[in-house]
Amino acid sequence: MGHGIAQVSAMTGHEVVLRDLDEELVSKGIDAIRVNLEGGVERDKVTREEMTSTLDRIASKTDLQSAIEGADLVVEAVPEKLSLKKNVLSESEKFLDEEAVLATNTSSLSVTELASALERPGQFVGLHFFNPVHIMALVEVIIAERTTDKTHTLVLDYVASLEKTPVTVRDSPGFASSRLGVALGVEAIRMVEKGVASPQDIDTAMELGYNHPMGPLELTDVVGLDVRLDILEYLREELGERFKPPQLLKRKVRAGKTGKKSGEGFYVWEDGDRVAMSDEWSIQ
């Protein structure tokens, strides 16, 4: 998600620093941005000049302090692990100017709980971008208990500058989008588990019957089955058994079938394209 946020920020005129733990990881992020932009050029969505200027606005660093000193806004986008995010956020806050805003890109974790690790929780907010960031128009803005109105206004202006639409949600488990999206996804997985219909037919039903751009099982593959499992386990703890993860999901994650990134989830993926269903499926 980090490289996608960096891309859309740079495309809309912001000066950006993309930071990761080592040079290899940072280079992968820059390469992913370049691939996205080249695809846009091929489809006449982006000009060659826009591609060049976007890349020129993105610096890459591995040192945290030099990466974020002087920044107006820092968006953390590390994996969905509460302790990891707390550590990264508290370390980042040490190097920020007093007026700077710190944000977390999370799809389910409590923003208020993350804020407890900070000295200035009023200048902290959740920014839930959607994947792929350069295509999806929505950003969910999550307001924690101590987020100030000034911080809220600043991030709303930032999202608007990206030419995306913000929705504001009070901090609650799963917020709005993840809670509803995961509820749909988990029911689709249960339907496959019970033999109601194939993944492809379930997805087609939602795409054609409800005008969803992508079916819930293909979306689970794109998001990552392991990510969906983590979210479900968190929501089950917070909201109850209706979010209990299906055994089918657990088995696939244990087998390393985590979706598009591993090459297999509910579908088989090759070079980023869906090519087949993962398992043979038929109504008996």
Shape designation:
globular
Number of separate strands: 9
Percent strand: 15-25%
Q: Characterize the main sheet.
A: 5 strands, mixed
Main-sheet strand order equals 3-4-5-6-7
Any idea what the radius of gyration is?
A: 19 Å
Sequence of secondary-structure elements: HEHHEHEHEHEEHEHHHHHEE
End-to-end distance, in Å?
A: 41 Å
| Tally of contiguous helical segments | 12
Structural class: alpha/beta
Instruction: Give the low-confidence spans.
Output: none
Mean pLDDT metric: 94
Describe how the helices and strands are arranged:
Layout: H1 2-11, E1 16-19, H2 23-42, H3 48-56, E2 58-61, H4 64-68, E3 73-76, H5 82-93, E4 101-104, H6 111-115, E5 124-129, E6 138-143, H7 149-161, E7 165-170, H8 177-193, H9 199-209, H10 216-223, H11 225-239, H12 247-254, E8 267-270, E9 273-277
Parallel strand pairs: 1-2, 3-4, 4-5, 6-7
Antiparallel strand pairs: 5-6, 8-9
